[in-house]
Amino acid sequence: MSTWKKINVNNQECTILAQKTNNLWKVCLTNLVQLWFEDLQSETIIERCKRLNPLLKIQALNLNEIMEEILTDIPNHAVEATLNSITLNKNIQGGIFKFRIDLSRGSEEDFFTVVTKSLCFSSGELFRRYSLLLELIKKKDEEIVEYKAVGAKLIRKHIETKKFTEELFNSEKGKEINYLNGFNSVASLYKEPERPDLKKEVSCSENLKSPVESGNLNMEADENINVSESSETLISNISGIKSSASSKSSEILKRKQEEKRKKAKKAKSTISASFMKPAIKKENRVKIL
Q1: Gap between the Cα atoms of 112 and 121, Å rounded
Q2: Is there a single domain that holds both residue 36 and residue 70?
Q3: Structural domain count of the chain
């Protein structure tokens, strides 16, 4: 996350911020009275690096990594700083890498967007966090009182605290701090939203590509193949389900018919046995006589 950092410019304390959004670096310098800035596109960075480093092979360098390092820590890489430009140096293998930031004075609207707006937002965010912490501390005090009411005792007495009251904020005056340090610590809570116009430019450039270059043609073909394959698979699955269902129903029907045959055969044998038994008994009686 990018943060504001103090930098000395013409023997005057200022604060500077370098923030990257998509492929755009925005460098802002302010003394909290006025604003100076520069927007650095990728093409501008490459062209300026080639002009300032004629003996270095820019194509062989990891330019993104180098720019990330020097722009996120401008005060430590600055060798000369004015309100118009800041010269940066970085030691690399094979020599010294040079870069320069060319600043332009911003308007009142630019100052409001970069400085005033971020300060107001951060102050509101601080108050929100203050309110949440205050409510949490009060609930913790009530929780401790309830623990003590049921007989709980604190073993480590040295960490025991008194009940919190908001009057504690007024008991001691806060130490005076440097206004730039105060701004830097508070403004870091503000996150600038991504610029929609940059996203629009990227999407427009992508739309200008031919279907073959953008890969849309292949994607559409793949989608059609997948759809046809999925439909064929679905049809085969449905037919398989129908055939398996019909085979199962025929098996069940055969079983029922077989059971009916067995029951009929069993009933027939029972009836014939009931007719045969009395005749046998009669024959036995005749023999005994």
Answers
A1: 12
A2: yes
A3: 2
Question: What size, in residues, is the chain?
Answer: 289
Helix (H) / strand (E) containing 128: helix 117-149
Q: Domain containing 100: what range?
A: 5-105
Q: What is the pTM of this model?
A: 0.59
Which residue, 148, 153, 36, is CA-closest to 86? 36
Which is nearest to 180 in space by CA: 30, 286, 280?
Answer: 30
pLDDT in tens, 146-196: 998 999 888 898 888 888 888 877 776 666 677 788 888 887 776 654 544
Considering the domain architecture, whether residues 11 and 100 belong to the same structural domain is answered as yes
Residues 157 and 191 reside in one and the same domain: yes
Burial of residue 97, with CB atoms counted within 10 A of its CB: 0-12 exposed, 13-18 middle, 19 or more buried: buried
Q: What is the pLDDT of residues 88-114, one digit of tens each?
A: 999 988 789 999 999 999 999 999 999
| pLDDT averaged over every residue in the chain | 76
